[in-house]
Amino acid sequence: MKRRRRRAHRPLALAFALVATILSVAGCRTPAANSQPSGAEALALTVWVLDHGWHTAVVVRRSDVDRARWPELDDFSDATLVEVAWGDREFYLAKSPTPWLAMRAAFVTSGSVLHVVGFTAPAADSFAGSAAVAIRLSRRSFDALADFVHAEYQRDHNGGVLRLDRSLYGSGWFYAARGRYHLFNTCNTWVARALSAAGLAVEPAGVVTASDVMRQVRPIGETRPPG
After folding, report:
1. Which of 20, 76, 87, 128 could crosslink 187 through cysteines, CB 3.0-4.6 Å?
2. Which distant-in-sequence residues (6+ apart) come within 8 Å of 139 by Cβ?
3. pLDDT for 193-225, tens place per residue?
């Protein structure tokens, strides 16, 4: 399972390396303001950021999510933890992703997808081999994160979600999503935008690789697997 998870994104290295080189000389980034409350609200909830090698994902406890804000999680009624990521539709759904598909996604997107997976197994089994950073959030910030993800689903004419295929691993789905994947709006940019929407000091501008995300979240979280 883990081998498939990492191999699926390895061809993206070509596109990511190119853009990372360009951005490395583009100047300094301005950090986002952190709207996390300081003592006024309890930081009672946790979100995890996972590093799968070439891409990152967000994990939450399903029981922490307000159903009114992220009702699509009804598809995962038995799950303890839920992982969500975003990416190019053609590349993500490909049975055998290639460097050509990775480069094509960077310049000519086929649309985007959300990859949402529910887990009931112990966290150590589900996320073995992936670096994880746990970040504490207030209820207000956690709800803002849920609102962000909910708004990313593409809808049919009746307002329903569009399930495209089963997930790459675990028990989950690919859903049609909003937004265009390109060189400057990658799967990792999306994770940074999700965290920024929650009020965290994470700047999406200039984020291309998984390292760009993890470099920003380590100072505001702690290394700890989901659970």
Report:
1. 87
2. 41, 42, 44, 45
3. 999 999 999 999 999 999 999 999 999 999 998
* DSSP secondary structure, 82-100, as one string: EEEEEEEHHHHH-SS--HH
- DSSP helix/strand/coil, 57: strand
pLDDT of residue 205: 94
Counted domains in the chain: 1
Is 33 part of a structural domain of the chain? no
Domain extent, residue 121, equals: 2-27+41-223
Q: Does residue 145 lie in a domain region?
A: yes
Q: How far is CA 56 from CA 40, 61, 67, 188, 225, in A?
A: 30, 17, 24, 6, 14
**How high is the pLDDT of residue 80?**
94
Q: Is residue 98 part of a domain?
A: yes
- H or E segment to which residue 170 belongs: none
Q: How confident is the model at residue 129 (pLDDT cuts 50, 70, 90)?
A: confident
Is the predicted pLDDT of residue 73 greater than 90, yes or no? yes
Phi, psi dihedral angles at 157 (to 5 degrees): -70, -15
The β-bridge relationship of strands 81-88 and 131-137 is unpaired
What angle do helix axes 210-217 and 187-197 make, rounded to 10 degrees? 30
The bridge status of strand 163-166 relative to strand 131-137 is unpaired
**Tokens describing residue 141:** 């910030």
Q: 117-148 in b/e burial notation, b at 16+ Cβ within 10 A?
A: bbbeeebeebbeebbbbbbbbbeebbbbbbeb
pTM beyond 0.85: the answer is no
Residue 143, token pair as written in the block: 């709800």
